[in-house]
Amino acid sequence: MDIIKMEGISKLYKSGQIQVEALKNISFRIQEKEFVSIMGPSGSGKSTLLNLIGCLDHSTSGTYELAGNQVNKLSDSKMSEVRNIFIGFVFQSFHLLPRMNAMKNVEIPLIYRGMNSKKRKELAENALEQVGLKDRMTHLPAQLSGGQQQRVAIARAIVGNPSIILADEPTGALDSKAGEKIMELFIELNEKKSMTIVQVTHEEQIAEYGSRIIRLVDGQIVSDDVVEVKNV
Ligand SMILES: Nc1ncnc2c1ncn2[C@@H]1O[C@H](COP(=O)(O)OP(=O)(O)OP(=O)(O)O)[C@@H](O)[C@H]1O
Ligand SMILES: [Mg+2]
Question: pTM value?
Fold first, then answer.
């Protein structure tokens, strides 16, 4: 089943006299349980596209269907409801709250859902266990390595059991060893938890952890290919 379906999507940014057409008439579909990498030069529209997929912003034109919901017809508040149910976000710079420990950071999305504290702690502990950080629950972000901070951010992204993980340069701030560990975690979430993953990266090696690579240039899709399975 298609979980993401975009048809003729464009995004125009206007600031003062200047207009930027960040996405130009883009169409593609992503099926449930796919692991897709988006690549392309700086300014080609990758983050813009990820933000549209993640219901953080409206497109200027075109239609977008997320898990059967016509997103482009939704109000901002309905759109954030859909986002909270279906999407978990991971960012290059982790976006953790510095004064809260790992556990509290992971609990945040559940607070927005109005869940009681006991249930929140239980789910947050589970998510941190899944990313291999059960023994770091009371650490503050500054007391964790970059790779560990990103794993806390992934625990926060998956704690509400979303269908889709969207990651914008998830390994961009990490060394290659820590980056590999993040990719192994994505593979596990993809294969064992059946989560659909869409990641933006500029590293070919990282992109190839996915099963498909979509390349953007100047706001348009220039290629969309299956990744060959390498014989090791
Ligand atoms: N909020 C905004 N207002 C105006 N223009 C924007 C805005 N966000 C992005 N743009 C413009 O849209 C284009 C696409 O930007 P986008 O951030 O999607 O690129 P990107 O592919 O993610 O680049 P990078 O690899 O550098 O992160 C760029 O030309 C950028 O300047
Ligand atoms: Mg970007």
Answer: 0.96
